[in-house]
Amino acid sequence: PAALREVSPLQLDTVAIGTALFARAQRRAAARVQRTIPAGFRNSMMPAQRVRYRYGGQALTVDYRSDDSHHGGALTFDVDGRGYRVTVVGTGDGRIDYTVDGRRHALSVTEVDDRRLVHGPDGDFELIELPRHPLPERAEFRGGLMAPMPGKVLSVSVADGAAVEEGQLLLILEAMKMEHRITAPAAGTVKAMKVKEGDQVANGALLVVIEEGSTKNGGEKANDN
Q: How far apart are CA 147 and CA 145, in angstroms?
């Protein structure tokens, strides 16, 4: 696609909706049991199904559910707070044919790992499907060490600006009646100690930020006691 192409919010929402519909149809086609049950069927009120994509530097949250108030398999979609009524016309051979608020669209979609390569009348798009449950090591705060579980900070062994070596003790966290030693994953410099002795921290709370790299000569290094 052209590097400077302008994409309107409606165009991007329409592509995200079509991509989500295509994945929904693929999952239904791959089902090994209860294949006659419509995709997304629920026998009680449940939260909407959700998928998140990234397009360039923009993240899109797509929520959708079957619309029981209308016949014909209609769905309601919400893309970052923007609502749409959607129907599926057909799917197959890598394509999805659907309507958004009464306007018909057709896209071809190719899935490569977490990439969704989409082609349609508005051009080519590449969406990245974001994980439903991001792992801690994928945190956006690079170099940040997070609490593995809720607990209390028993002691802090380094200060801001300290030079640390790989494996050096940074702090001790008490959780589940056990002491957890939080150590430096690599040599570097402590950019920010986010907690102090006695603090209660939640699961996943940012504890300390380390800028990885060789330690500076003469840099402060706390005792590992």
A: 7
If you average pLDDT over residues 44-57, what whole number do you get? 82
Q: Is the pTM of this model over 0.90?
A: no
Please tell me the distance from the alpha carbon of residue 51 to that of residue 63, in angstroms, as a whole number: 7
DSSP readout, 19-83? HHHHHHHHHHHT-SS-TTSPTT--SS--PPEEEEEEETTEEEEEEEEE-TTSSSS-EEEEETTEE
Both tokens of 19, joined, read 């991509």
Number of residues assigned to the chain: 225
User: Tokens 């170099």 identify what position?
Assistant: 143
d(CA 107, CA 44): 32
Q: Residue 220: its pLDDT value, please?
A: 44
pLDDT, tens only, 19-34: 999 999 888 777 666 5
10 three-state secondary structure:
helix
Rounded Cα–Cα distance for residues 64 and 193 (Å): 41
3-class secondary structure, 118: strand
